[in-house]
Amino acid sequence: MRSTLALLVLVAALPLSAQQSDPLAFLRHGNEPADIAFATYRDQPYAPVRSGEVRAASFLTESRAMPFGQLLGPVDPPVVRATQSAEAAMPGMVVAVRPPEGASYQRGDTVMLALVVPGPKGWGDIVLPTGLARIGEQTPRQTLATVIAMFGPIRYGQAVLPVEPLVNPGKVQPVPVAGPTGEVIGSEEPRELQQVGGQMFISIGRSSGLRVGDFIQIRRRPTARINGSNTIDDLVATAQVVHTGDKSSTIKLTRIIDPDIRPGAPVVRTATLPS
């Protein structure tokens, strides 16, 4: 109510001629031209790949040995050794990390902080990124890093993993392609009905030519049903690839027609980003 009254008072304070010639003048400050005043409300330019979505995407280890280090927790001041603590690290905080046996991190390296949980049978574990950190000072006691991004709670004991390089394709438009095909392995977290923005794992990856940014269709597998109509090969959902492994990929659901998406549902790549 107060905001409405304030808006009416602001409009009334304008000269009548200004209100008639430009009914939205009260939204601008001073003599700003319309293209500057409404810049925030314009449609944002199309970005085929968003780095934040890629970095935050979970993925399968595919039963491969990963170079996991360990997060030792927040350190304050930096000269103090990190101890086991339930305190969650926030962006800007300094944390201590331990590289894997026989390896080391270099100053300026960016590493992923992540939870590692059991994954679908035959596909290894699921890596759930919780944040990013940049390696800084290294002392005889520990390696220090500054948290630069947060995707979830960052706590002691989580895994540390070097991030893979991400190539930005630029402002390109997807082009149609046919295949490859695979099937749904499962979802990032158990749920009966999928939602737009949810992540799922599929059984095609880099070895099949799949790349980050590619577009996927999830189809319905035709089956005969008792006391019901048979299912046909119709569209269930569309998605975009946000992470690729050798044999599997992570997709982010962009449109859902039927939220009941089960493991084994056929998937096919329908579009890719030009190189």
Descriptive overview:
By secondary structure, the chain is mainly beta. The chain folds into three domains: 2-41, no CATH class; 53-162, no CATH class; 175-272, Rod shape-determining protein MreC, domain 1 (Thrombin, subunit H), CATH 2.40.10.340. Helices cover 10% and strands 33% of the residues. It is built from four helices and 14 strands. It has helices at 2-13, 16-21, 34-37, 51-55, and strands at 59-60, 69-74, 94-98, 110-118, 125-138, 143-150, 159-162, 175-176, 181-187, 199-202, 215-219, 235-244, 249-256, 266-272. The strands form two sheets. The chain has a six-stranded antiparallel beta barrel.
Secondary structure: elements and pairs:
Elements: H1 2-13, H2 16-21, H3 34-37, H4 51-55, E1 59-60, E2 69-74, E3 94-98, E4 110-118, E5 125-138, E6 143-150, E7 159-162, E8 175-176, E9 181-187, E10 199-202, E11 215-219, E12 235-244, E13 249-256, E14 266-272
Antiparallel strand pairs: 1-5, 2-3, 2-7, 3-6, 4-5, 4-7, 5-6, 8-14, 9-10, 9-14, 10-13, 11-12, 11-14, 12-13
Task: Give descriptors for this structure.
about 280 residues, mainly beta, Thrombin, subunit H, 6-stranded antiparallel barrel, 14 strands, elongated
Overall SS class = mainly beta
Please report the number of helical segments.
4
Count of extended strands: 14
Low-confidence stretches: 4-14
Question: Whole-number radius of gyration?
Answer: 25 Å
Work out the count of structural domains: 3
Give the N-terminus to C-terminus distance in angstroms: 54 Å
Strand content: 25-35%
